[in-house]
Amino acid sequence: MKGLPETPMKDDSGLPADAVTFEEVGLTYTTARGGVQALAGITLTIPRGHFVSIVGPSGCGKSSLLMLTAGLRTCTEGRVLIDAVPVSGPQAGTGIVFQSDTLLDWRTALDNVLVQIELRRLRKAKYQQRALDLLRSVGLGGFEQRHPYELSGGMRQRIAICRALIHDPGLLLMDEPFGALDALTRDQMMCDLQALWLEQRKTVLFITHSIPEAIFLSDRVVVMSPRPGRIDDIIDIKLPRPRELHMTTEPDFNAYVQGIRQIFERRGVLRAEPDTAHGQPLARPAESNESRRLR
Length: 295
Fold this sequence. Notes:
Blueprint: E1 18-31, E2 34-47, E3 51-55, H1 62-70, E4 77-82, E5 85-86, E6 94-97, H2 109-119, H3 124-137, H4 153-165, E7 171-175, H5 183-200, E8 203-208, H6 211-217, E9 220-224, E10 231-236, H7 251-267, E11 274-275, E12 280-281, H8 289-294
Parallel strand pairs: 3-8, 3-9, 6-7, 7-8
Antiparallel strand pairs: 1-2, 1-4, 4-5, 9-10, 11-12
Helix pairs in contact: 2-3, 2-4, 6-7
């Protein structure tokens, strides 16, 4: 009947086919100098079981969008829905991985994974084996009793991912989780995360500055404009899985890279022309403190 909300389509599990829905989402921060609009008119769906990455310039609101999804911030316009239910606060059914691993140095790797179980007041013994299995699945078998200060950055971030997955969430939110890692470690982490995702098929919303990283991992890449962040384009990545690192040098992969770079060039985020005075590419403007806060 006219005026009734449309019933969302459901998959075999009885859940809506779209795990996350953004409906005309906007976010404005209140500052001493007035309102600062971080996001405007974000309308997007994330199908269940898909890996979706968001790329965009610093300050475009990528991380803010993730915080809205997690229920850690509130929309000033529109709404976010998870499983067709509007988000009104922190979500128990999500896992979150940040750029900083935020591990507790006085706890072992295993106990860092289980800390979320304790905070949720769940029975720790029930999740002990799952924690061990997760650590082994990311190559940390034998490191269960090591402390974070004994481990590399990549190993610490693997623990953080295990901690986010320990309660078997349907949705995994990842905010530039590899941003602080060196290039070789990032490559390995991309491969490890892909393998984990292929095994578990979680719905993933992944924030990154890296165009190749987004293409390698994703079913779909959402390209955002400079602030206020809007959706500039949505690109389906039709590369076969599992993806291997050698694919990043192949023509099909590079066609996606160049396509996304051209979007940023049209927006003036990237400049292709050289500095005629010095024969060098133009430098990017320095990122402001306000931009860092709005990421």
